[in-house]
């Protein structure tokens, strides 16, 4: 097993790094980070077999690139770049061979199809408008979609930090059709979303508010009901914080989010009525943890700290959801994205 970590390339990072995972339980360890893909600003990426679909910040242009991995390294097989900023998020459907990107700066949502060899074809794009911009400084300059991926029923969903909205789409005849919109409270800063195991609830995290909103919804009638909202950081924490990544365990029992500023991962238990109960806040032992992720068994978790160029490895207790740090100060530069791989 290996872990891939990529991020910004503003200081010393050259792109995406691979760290070998060895051992098990408390003796599990990550090895030295080795650069396997040289690319500008791979702040988010996905993988399908030996293909890596990554954000590419190429100076005056931005977009995505596709790299093919081999025993001899990696080579770029295709790219789609446009003038301006690169996207912030990459989603994937490996069965349909579709890639979804959300561009925080240009407000463009894109759908690509890719071939077995990794060649990209743009399917469709939509641009979010300034419909309901929030009051915070980060919102007044326009819409900022930060997530674009699939729903339990196979529709698409975007979280827009600028508009405080969750927007739902369907890809119909290779065209994106807007279906419905859920509005978070003003200043929420909608960033990432996960869905309950039964598909009847979603949990959306607000970057600017450091909150998680629990929403009951019907993906046939598009009715929404806000159930509850929870702070991801302590009430008495007054310094700046930006809530970031959001994950739900495959058994549907626990939700995890990262906090950039409080520098922690918050663990919530999902109750039978889909409300949340705080289980744990654990340090990431570094500064500015944008992303974290787990292996396929969800027994091990790795968090990357962007500003302190380090990562932390945890052992996850599947019974009570808690995380126990087992390796700290793993050197990796400017990490913002974590992905376990074989």
From TrEMBL:
InterPro entries recorded: Cycloisomerase_2, Haem_d1_sf, Lactonase_7-beta_prop, WD40/YVTN_repeat-like_dom_sf
Question: Cross-referenced SUPFAM superfamilies, in alphabetical order?
Answer: C-terminal (heme d1) domain of cytochrome cd1-nitrite reductase
Pfam families for this protein: Lactonase (PF10282)
Extract the GO molecular function terms from the UniProt entry: 6-phosphogluconolactonase activity
| Entry GO CC | cytosol
Domain of life, per lineage:
Bacteria
Family membership, please give it: Belongs to the cycloisomerase 2 family.
Protein name as catalogued: 6-phosphogluconolactonase
Output the lineage of the source organism: Bacteria, Bacillati, Bacillota, Bacilli, Lactobacillales
């Amino acid at each position: 097993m290996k872990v891939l970590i990529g991020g910004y390339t503003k200081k010393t990072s050259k792109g995406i790094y691979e760290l070998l995972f060895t051992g098990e339980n408390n003796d599990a360890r990550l090895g030295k980070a080795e650069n396997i893909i040289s690319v500008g600003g791979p702040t988010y990426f996905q993988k399908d077999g030996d293909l890596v679909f990554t954000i590419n910040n190429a100076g005056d242009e931005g977009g995505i690139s596709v790299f093919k991995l081999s025993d001899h390294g990696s080579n770029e097989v295709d790219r789609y770049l446009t003038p301006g900023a690169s996207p912030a998020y990459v989603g994937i459907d490996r069965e349909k061979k579709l890639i979804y990107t959300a561009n925080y700066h240009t407000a463009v949502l894109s759908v690509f199809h890719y071939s077995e060899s990794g060649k990209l074809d743009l399917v469709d794009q939509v641009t979010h408008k300034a419909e309901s911009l929030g009051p915070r400084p980060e919102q007044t300059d326009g819409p900022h979609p930060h997530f674009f991926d699939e729903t339990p029923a196979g529709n698409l969903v975007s979280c827009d930090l600028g508009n405080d909205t969750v927007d739902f789409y369907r890809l119909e005849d290779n065209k994106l059709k807007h279906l419905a919109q859920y509005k978070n409270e003003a200043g929420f800063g909608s960033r990432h979303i996960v869905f309950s195991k039964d598909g009847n609830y979603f949990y959306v995290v607000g970057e600017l508010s450091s909150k998680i909103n629990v929403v009951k919804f019907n993906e046939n009638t598009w009715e929404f009901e806000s159930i509850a909202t929870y702070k991801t950081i302590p009430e008495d924490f007054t310094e700046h914080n930006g809530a970031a990544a959001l994950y739900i365990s495959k058994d549907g029992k626990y939700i995890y989010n990262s906090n950039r500023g409080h520098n922690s991962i918050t663990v919530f238990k999902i109750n039978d009525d889909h409300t949340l109960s705080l289980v744990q806040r654990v340090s990431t032992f570094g500064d500015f943890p944008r992303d974290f992720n787990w292996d396929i068994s969800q027994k091990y978790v790795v968090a990357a700290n962007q500003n302190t160029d380090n990562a932390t490895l945890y052992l996850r207790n599947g019974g009570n959801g808690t995380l126990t740090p087992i390796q700290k100060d793993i050197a990796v530069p400017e990490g913002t994205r974590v992905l376990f791989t074989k």
